[in-house]
Design goal:
By secondary structure, the chain is of the alpha+beta class. It is 31% helix and 26% strand. The strands form six sheets. The protein has a six-stranded antiparallel barrel with strand order 13-16-15-14-17-18. The protein has a five-stranded parallel β-sheet with strand order 7-2-1-11-20, with helices on one face. Helix 1 packs parallel to helix 13 and helix 10 packs across helix 12.
């Protein structure tokens, strides 16, 4: 049996599948090695099983949502971007639907359909996929890739694409093993941290609000008394603290600050469209309009019903008094809490629950024009294992597609 291939791809996630498909389209004999028993396990859980395929933001806007430096991705996005993945999936039977917030989902709302379409594409290009194959070693001679050793077998190739994922959701196979292989090839790894991850809070206020979903609120991160970041949109209270889109977006800043032992607070503004004066005028108007009613009965005008008991417990006023008896000082207390519902952050959730990994293979050691290693000839990187991560909204999957496509394309054009 001849174990030589034009391209070997390590990892059958979105980045690996795109790399393999593109290389095979260009005529390459391609082998994909996946240590798990099935392909695309992490892809299947994206978007809560619906798969947020990509985002329709133009490249100039898209890169603003990528950290630490989205500009690195310009060549990859120029080769293969959102319209291209939508068209590729459509060719293989999956229609995508654009939502009002710019995110694309499959019309079926099933991530399994996206994975099936990609596998159908690879099958049509005669890509060989071997599941249950763990790569133990990269075979390197004179700083040039010669192949890999997997399950005790030597598999030879002058082009190897590493798309092994990060550390997040290790049960899907992305447990950081790829970083060790890269280190042995001479690469440095920027410290990895959980990103897009829930935040744990002090006390029991968040727990009392568990399950409550808030829309159109503003969350602000304060570090040692100074505002660090903010985001507007949707969030949710959980059994451990805070989560939801805007919290996940802000978690990148929070995780690094917590690791630096700084004091971190997240402050929720429940009425971000009103400044203090306008909100105060609204409170005065509502209190005057319901003068003989108890204050507790007017809170429903300002808060979701399930939030009222918890909110009232945080106020140091008698909510049984009538509205026309509320003092200016008490009204200011109500206003302050509406604009400043504060939570001390004690920790973040682990890699087991993190959507993405921050950190990874340094972009300084990768050619942005080809995704090839600057250290080992013929070695390429794609996807989450690179030191690039983005906000929620389909951005991270597009990074995987684009870097994978460019890596696969470059392999064959350098053959």
């Amino acid at each position: 049996m001849i174990n030589y291939f034009d391209v070997i791809v390590i990892g059958a996630g979105p980045a690996g599948l795109l790399a393999a498909g593109r290389a095979a389209e260009l005529g390459g004999k391609v082998l994909v090695l996946e240590k798990m028993k099935q392909e695309g396990r992490k892809l299947l859980i994206t978007g809560k099983g619906r798969c947020n395929i990509t985002n329709n933001a133009p490249i100039s806007e898209f890169i603003k949502h990528v950290y630490p430096d989205g500009r690195f991705l310009r060549p990859a996005f120029s080769c293969f971007f959102s319209k291209d993945i939508i068209e590729l999936l459509k060719t293989h039977g999956v229609e995508a639907e654009l939502k009002s917030d710019g995110r694309y989902f499959p019309v079926s709302n099933r991530s399994t359909d996206v994975l099936k379409a990609l596998l159908l594409w690879l099958k049509s290009c005669s890509v060989e996929i071997r599941c249950g194959f763990r790569v133990e070693e990269l075979i390197i001679e004179d700083k040039t890739i010669k192949g890999v050793q997997a399950n005790g077998q030597k598999l030879l190739s002058n082009h190897v694409v590493m798309a092994t994922g990060g550390n997040s959701y290790p049960a899907t196979g992305s447990n950081g093993e790829g970083y060790e292989l890269a280190r042995h090839a001479g690469h440095s790894v920027v410290k990895v941290r959980p990103a897009l991850v829930g935040l744990e809070t002090e006390g029991d206020v968040a727990q009392k609000l568990q399950g409550l979903n808030l829309k159109d609120v503003k969350a602000m991160v304060w570090v040692n008394g100074r505002k660090k970041a903010e985001a507007f949109g949707e969030m949710i209270f959980t059994h451990f603290g805070l989560s939801g889109p805007i919290i996940l977006t802000l978690s990148r800043a929070v995780v690094s600050e917590l690791q630096n032992k700084n004091k971190v607070e997240v402050v929720i503004d429940l009425e971000p469209t009103l400044d203090d004066q306008k909100l105060d005028n609204r409170l005065i108007s509502d209190l005057n309009a319901h003068g003989n009613k108890k204050v507790i009965n007017v809170f429903r005008l300002w808060l979701p019903a399930s939030m009222i008991p918890v909110y009232v417990d945080l106020l140091n006023i008698n909510t049984e008094k009538e509205c026309n008896q509320v003092s200016s000082k008490e009204r200011k207390q109500i206003l302050h809490l509406l604009k400043n519902l504060s939570f001390q952050i004690t920790n973040h959730r682990s890699f087991k629950e993190a959507i993405i990994t921050s950190g990874g293979i340094s972009t300084n050691e990768i050619s942005q024009k080809t995704m090839e290693s600057k250290i080992t000839k013929g070695l390429y990187f794609a996807g989450e294992m690179i030191d690039l991560d983005a906000e929620t909204g389909g951005y991270n999957l597009q990074i995987a597609y684009s870097t994978g496509w460019l890596a696969g394309d470059s392999c064959m054009k350098k053959s």
